[in-house]
Structure to design on (709 residues):
């Protein structure tokens, strides 16, 4: 069990069975060095120059090459935009290397190119310009802002789903308007709102029925698109609203409908050509060690929704292994104080083998897919299977843990702001973890996302610590999910020939739940908010979790079938615990929590190892009484009470209880309410917080409003 008295230590120590581990976040600081010891790069430089402050180099490739040759360990980038024609690929290093901006100047790594255009009127407020032959792009940036690819229906910033949707988007009547829709796209939500599906239009027939390919982005069989929540884009005939654009690649003509307040002749115009900007290491090469990227801005990467095809085991996810920064086969890498602006796909992707890759002090905004991903390789997983494959007890490998080193371990995301990711791909997350071990997410502000803020996709291999994060405005465009979400479809899950409700009643099966999730995952002292699902959602077999001292502002805590979950000393504002289809002998413990309404069970086979010492908050009830409604539901809660929790300042988000609160008498311990989210002043000035006052006006969840399975 967790010793709550030790949670103030910055080094968090947890124990799992016989294994004890300690994970301390490193404090890595940039050294002050003379520019004589550095290689200087400038967009106005020359690759034949020596790389000094007076005579800088021009390209990053040449700078890395020179750093190897002369042994200088710092490359400083002067202000400006570095248009990359190919990703900067950093492989084995002779000495530690740091690539950073010079003297707080803004150094931008761009996967695009700036066009110098001669605009001329076309019709109906639309302008046109000739672009260089061979120009292709899936995004257009005007004055560094991404514009809207011609679409139907038109872009609506206030629409809940897809920034606008229409049931007739691909109807024959609509398609009839389009001369040649080949190359256009259909974007739709999955029928049950689990994420998004994307299709490339290949043409139409004489009956104005579209032909298209795609729809493989969700890993649960052939999923149907939603009949209402869809739109089409990259259709020339739909270019009819300010801010929209279309590129005719055959005629090399760019069309743009400028807003009335835009001076097009003075505007900057950028198109996009790369998927990755920096690749670190290589799965097939010796590992790279000791690299830091600091103070850089990353822009202009291609969208990747049609490349999102690799299934992540039996989770609902498919992934594209790519990002503005892509890391594989690296140790001791720091990405510090960087900005990721309006990228087309993932911002940072750590793939396969990685050790001690740390993301710190970064700002990620409006990425097309996920913010930060730690995703191992299936080759490291014993009995790695994908949906809808199943295993039997006679065929599974009973050895614990991974079978190779091709996974991330001891990595972190710290003091990082991630906002409005998933602009295109809705099955995405601010932070995604899969096939990894001991990943720490600490003091992050994550909000404005279509699905989970943090997603742990499977149980391989646990040891993750989520602490002091502020996660809100989540699941904005999907459903059946949480601000925190996890899956656990590991080796034991739905074994053929077993009864999932009684699995651990048989002695030979008792070790199964921790074969993959070897170490407990810990959620401690976070603030969670999800108005369209659960604040914390442990789904489909999620096991071996410690959920301690979390403030859940809206959606409560859901535990679907699984084992070895401890839910202790949490506050579930306006909500409660949701036990869904719990198996017998789950070993779950739920104690010393404050809930606002009785539990909301769905068909539990049993009620865990211990449920007790909980407080059912009833505002104004000053005389505590036994929590009869809780006892009736679960047959436990012998010592639990119903009473006013006596919060000191709940309207301002501080749910500390009075020292005479009945919760204190039940063993509840107050925990800090002011340490959530990013720490650095630069990021705190940018990060909003949940609207506590508005959330408190919402009526507590009703027992009658049970979410179906």
């Amino acid at each position: 069990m967790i010793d709550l008295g030790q949670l103030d230590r910055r080094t968090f120590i947890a124990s799992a069975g016989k294994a004890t581990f300690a994970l301390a976040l490193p404090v890595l600081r940039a050294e002050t060095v003379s520019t004589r010891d550095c290689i200087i790069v400038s967009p106005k430089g020359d690759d034949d120059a020596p790389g000094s402050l007076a005579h800088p180099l021009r390209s990053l490739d040449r700078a890395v090459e020179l750093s190897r040759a002369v042994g200088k360990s710092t490359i400083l980038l002067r202000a400006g935009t570095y248009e990359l024609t190919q990703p900067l690929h950093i492989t084995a290093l002779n000495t530690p290397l740091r690539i950073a901006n010079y003297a707080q100047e803004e150094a931008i790594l761009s996967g695009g190119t700036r066009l110098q255009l001669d605009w001329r009127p076309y019709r109906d407020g639309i302008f046109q310009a000739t672009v260089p032959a061979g120009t292709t792009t899936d995004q257009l940036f005007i004055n560094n802002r991404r514009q809207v690819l011609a679409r139907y229906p038109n872009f609506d910033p206030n629409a809940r789903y897809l920034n606008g949707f229409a049931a007739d988007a691909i109807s024959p009547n609509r398609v009839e308007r389009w001369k040649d829709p080949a190359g256009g796209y259909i974007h739709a939500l999955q029928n049950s709102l689990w994420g998004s599906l994307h299709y490339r239009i290949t043409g139409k027939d004489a009956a104005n029925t579209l032909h298209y390919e795609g729809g493989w982005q969700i890993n649960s069989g052939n999923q149907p698109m939603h009949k209402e929540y869809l739109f089409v884009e990259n259709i020339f005939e739909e270019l009819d609203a300010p801010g929209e654009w279309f590129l005719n690649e055959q005629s090399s003509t760019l069309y743009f409908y400028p807003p009335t307040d835009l001076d097009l002749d003075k505007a900057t115009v950028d198109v996009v050509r790369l998927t990755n900007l920096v690749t670190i290491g290589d799965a097939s090469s010796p590992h790279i060690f000791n690299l830091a990227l600091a103070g850089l801005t990353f822009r202009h990467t291609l969208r990747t929704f049609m490349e999102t095809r690799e299934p992540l085991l039996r989770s609902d996810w498919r992934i594209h292994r790519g990002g503005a920064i892509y890391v594989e086969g690296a140790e001791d890498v720091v990405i510090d104080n960087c900005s990721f602006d309006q990228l087309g796909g993932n911002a940072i992707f750590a793939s396969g083998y990685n050790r001690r890759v740390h993301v710190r002090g970064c700002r990620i905004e409006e990425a097309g897919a996920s913010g930060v991903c730690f995703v191992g390789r299936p080759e490291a997983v014993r009995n790695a299977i994908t949906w809808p494959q199943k295993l039997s007890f006679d065929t599974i490998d009973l050895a614990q843990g991974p079978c190779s080193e091709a996974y991330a371990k001891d990595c972190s995301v710290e003091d990082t702001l991630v906002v409005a990711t998933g602009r295109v791909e809705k099955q995405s997350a601010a932070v995604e973890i899969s096939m990894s071990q001991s990943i720490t997410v600490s003091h992050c502000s994550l909000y404005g996302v279509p699905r989970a803020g943090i997603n742990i996709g499977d149980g391989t291999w646990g040891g993750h610590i989520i602490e002091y994060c502020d996660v809100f405005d989540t699941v904005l465009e999907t459903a059946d999910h949480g601000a925190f979400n996890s899956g656990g479809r590991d080796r034991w899950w739905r074994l053929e020939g077993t009864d999932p409700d009684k699995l651990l009643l048989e002695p030979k099966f008792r070790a199964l739940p921790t074969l993959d999730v070897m170490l407990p995952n810990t959620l401690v002292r976070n603030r969670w908010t999800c108005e369209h699902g659960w604040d914390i959602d442990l789904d489909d077999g999620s096991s071996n979790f410690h959920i301690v001292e979390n403030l859940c502002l809206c959606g409560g805590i859901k535990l679907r079938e699984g084992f070895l979950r401890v839910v202790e000393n949490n506050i579930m504002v306006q909500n409660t615990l949701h036990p869904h289809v719990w198996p017998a002998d789950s070993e779950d413990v739920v104690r010393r929590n404050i809930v606002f309404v009785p539990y909301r069970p769905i068909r539990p086979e049993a009620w865990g190892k211990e449920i007790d010492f909980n407080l059912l908050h009833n505002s104004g009830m000053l005389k505590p009484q036994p929590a009869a409604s809780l006892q009736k539901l679960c047959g436990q809660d012998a010592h639990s009470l119903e009473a006013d929790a006596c919060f000191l300042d709940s309207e301002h988000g501080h749910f500390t209880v009075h020292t005479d609160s009945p919760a204190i008498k039940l063993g509840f311990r107050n925990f800090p309410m002011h340490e959530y989210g990013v720490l650095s002043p630069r990021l705190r000035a940018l990060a909003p917080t949940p609207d506590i006052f508005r959330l408190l006006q919402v009526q507590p969840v009703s027992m009658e409003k049970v979410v179906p399975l």
The CA atoms of residues 179 and 512 lie 58 Å apart. The first strand starts at residue 12 and ends at 16. The longest helix spans residues 60-70.
